[in-house]
Amino acid sequence: MSLWDSFKSLKSREQRMAWAVAIGADALQLLAFPLFAEGGASPADWVLDLFVAFILTRLLGWHWAFLPSLAVELIPGLDLFPTWTAAVWFVTRQQVQSSEPEILPPGPAPEPRP
């Protein structure tokens, strides 16, 4: 599934807002690099990451993928990797795939239960 297909599959307002928040936070960390270069030692980094984690959890619900993203944001240098965008991609991709109907292989129908 390409990135464009992922965007087209977003049907809910919450998923689209989560993508905007994640991309915005990662872009802010890249554009304002001097404020976030220290990783976890930077107060600006703490505030931004806690805010983003809170907002994403409110929009998409709790998911374990947010925990490693928050931990990586504390490491200097690695916090420039778009971890929030990757986490939102992972979570929304699972939500889209899990809502699709299950297609069973062809074969005889199961016997009715008595």
Concise synopsis of the structure shown:
With 114 residues, the protein is mostly helical. It has helices at residues 3-8, 13-31, 33-36, 43-60, 66-72, 83-99.
Could you say how many structural domains there are in total?
A: 1
Unreliable sequence segments: none
What's the Cα radius of gyration?
19 Å
Helix content estimate: 55-70%
Q: Your description of this structure?
A:
This protein is mostly helical. The chain has one domain. 62% of the residues lie in helices and 0% in strands. The chain contains six helices and no strands.
Give me the secondary-structure topology.
Blueprint: H1 3-8, H2 13-31, H3 33-36, H4 43-60, H5 66-72, H6 83-99
Helix pairs in contact: 2-4, 2-6, 5-6
What labels describe this entry?
elongated, mainly alpha, single chain, 6 helices, 114 residues
